[in-house]
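Hey,

Quick one before I head out. I ran the complex with iron/sulfur cluster overnight. Inputs first:
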Amino acid sequence: MSNGVNEEGMDKYLRLAKELHMLDAMLISPQKIHFDIRAILKCRWGCEGFSDENIRCQSRGTTYPERVEMVKKYSHILLVHSHDARELSEAVLEIEKRAFLDGYYFAFALRTCNLCPNCLLKKGNACPAPDRVRPCEQSFGIDVYKTVRNLGFSCNVLLNREAIQNRYGFVLID
Ligand code: SF4
């Protein structure tokens, strides 16, 4: 299956994702990301944790078109797949850091923050790592279901809490 990018030189991030115990990773171009403004509709009204003050949800003065444009400026985006939300949040940050140190100074992870087993914000406590919180992909209007399904990955609505989760994150590399 074509992923739309030249992977030369970027293979190291695929290997790094494996080293970080991710199930899969794929380099994609921004054309493979499906934007749909209804993702923001579900984010603002469909997420029990949404709050304008919540650091996980803030759009920090950016508009939806600006956020789409930000993503489209990149040529290489690493899509990362895991069953474990917390491991995925850690992994995308590590990949972002390694890419930055490799000279990709705009490297940036897009992934709703699951760094803590239970987000401390839910109980009104301060976030212990605000500098590590990255934007939620829904707030960027990314339809994760359609994006990953089009690339051959599994993503289904979970019918109960015991169901295996398929979680996805993005690292915008350059
Ligand atoms: S670092 Fe922890 S407290 Fe802060 S947003 Fe992420 S999960 Fe919540």
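DSSP finds five helices and four strands in the chain.

Talk tomorrow,
K.
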